[in-house]
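Review session, final week

We close the course with one last complete record, chosen because it touches almost every idea we covered. It is NAD(P)-binding protein, a protein from Podila minutissima with 254 residues. Go through it on your own first, then we will talk.
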Amino acid sequence: MSRLQGKNVLITGASSGIGEACARHFAKAGSNLLLAARRKERLENLKQELEAQHPSIIVSTFELDVRSKAKVDAVVASMGHVDVLVNNAGLVIGLDKLEDITEEAMDTMLDTNVKGLVYVTQAVVPGMRARNSGHIINIGSVAGQQAYANGSIYCASKAAVASITRALMAETIDTAIRVSEINPGLVETEFSVIRFRGDKDKADSVYKGMEPLNGDDIAETVIFVAGRPVHVNIAEMLVFPTNQAAATNVYRKP
């Protein structure tokens, strides 16, 4: 019997990529799903598919932009209790030098990747404290550990996620709440398409000559981390494709 069976799992950014893959893996483990994202239609399609495949679980969907604290608070309050939170919602816009980044792009990245993660966590943690149980899994990035040219604000946002994760771990040390961070390297999802503002050719070029990670690869690590015994906390995990050794150190076949 899976340790995750019957657990209520909230996943943000669940309509695609890593978030969608996490939903599929938690469903297979027997967890009930609380799926949140901006694209409600995608969530509804995913709900129908997963409930058909796994009749014993309950899947609930919530249209949510994590940048709005009021909406986050209202949506989380309507969910009931959350056993596992996967803070996955996040994005990157452009590959611009610092002096060229627009205010809009900067605000979108910081409001989503940092403030949005904080809002959802703030809404969930009090209930976990009251029950003295729960697990928060933040999806960070190697970019939060190793800054690179033309990624200053995105790297800063993921460095903030790393610091928030470590601080929260210290703040909950006297409880049974677990706090983890998973930091992927190159993962091929819609992430790069968004980064290049819909330019699929540019997005594909990021992975040229190598085999990147995919959403399932990261979802498997999330399931592993969430499924450890309650006295075990995988605090941090760095996950690369085989031909990557650092944020910008990638071997590509000629």
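Two points worth writing down before the exam:
The chain is about 40% helix and 15% strand.
Residues 209 and 252 are 4 Å apart (CA to CA).
Good luck, everyone.
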